[in-house]
Amino acid sequence: MNKIRTALISVWDKTNIVDLAQFLIEKNIKIYSFNKDSVLEMLGRFTEDLSSLQKAIRNNDTQLLEKIFTSTKEIRKLIEEAGQAGTFDPTESNKDFT
């Protein structure tokens, strides 16, 4: 079987695009995209946000962590209300993810 070395991406719905791009990068697959600059910008923002979150956790910055998690909870609620994501209930007993 031939190994995939490059991927051409052109998307309208950018749902999970960061996950896709990270997967391709981890697999050393070159990304050719009509919106490459936008993808790179989003990955850069994601990386910066993740670094800030890691720093807040390391420094036990509870005020920043509360601000981040409150904000993301509100954003997630809006996404769910728009019908763009499922709901998450941490008390769900069904663990079957197959």
Write up what this structure looks like.
The protein has 98 residues and is mainly α. It has 3 helices and 2 strands; from the N terminus they run βαβαα. It has helices spanning 17-26, 36-58, 62-81; strands at 6-9, 30-33. Strands 1-2 form a two-stranded parallel sheet. Helix 1 (17-26) links the parallel strand 1 and strand 2. It is extended.
Please list the strands of the largest sheet in the order they lie side by side: 1-2
Largest sheet: 2 strands, parallel
Briefly note the structural class of the backbone: mainly alpha
Terminal-residue CA separation: 27 Å
Could you provide a short overview of the structure?
The protein is mainly α and 98 residues long. 54% of the residues lie in helices and 8% in strands.
Entry keywords:
single chain, 98 residues, mainly alpha, two-stranded parallel sheet, 3 helices, 2 strands, 54% helix
Outline the fold blueprint.
Elements: E1 6-9, H1 17-26, E2 30-33, H2 36-58, H3 62-81
Parallel strand pairs: 1-2
